[in-house]
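To: structure subgroup
Subject: Chain for Friday's discussion

All,

I'm putting the inputs and outputs inline so they're searchable in the archive.
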Amino acid sequence: MVPFNANDPKYHSCCCGAHVTKLVRILIVITLFCQLLSFSHFGILFISGCCIVILGAIGVFKESRAIILIYIGLNVICKAFDVTFSLAFWNLAQFIKDRDVSQQLPVVYEVRIDQPIRIAASALGSEDPTFIPVNVSVPFAPVEQSEIAVPGETPPPYEEK
């Protein structure tokens, strides 16, 4: 059996030829410092982030393999949430861009009265006082095919017909 060599070249290959233990200690201190700088929203996310980084620092400085593996697992879970949240924000940005770029068609309103209504005979020009219109449809600003707005053009002004 080959004895363990802590200075084996495979442990110096991470970054700039630094030994893995020195490099990880520097990285965990930087991570802890960055976590402390992000305390502007002191809440459960800040506290949980600090706990995870402190757990990693304990694992690194005590050189405990189990604690480091737990730290790595928690980090992977947090990064998975980061990716998921980033995708959700990306989709929101695309939605806002599409909404801003597209030009909405003018809204067409139509008033439909499907219930029988007793209207004064004089208003409808009828001499029969019991005249009840059953289906009255009053269109407002009808849109014809030629009047549909094309992106980049302003819609024509409304004209009474």
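Points worth raising on Friday:
Residues 65-101 form the longest helix (37 residues).
The CA atoms of residues 115 and 134 lie 6 Å apart.

D.
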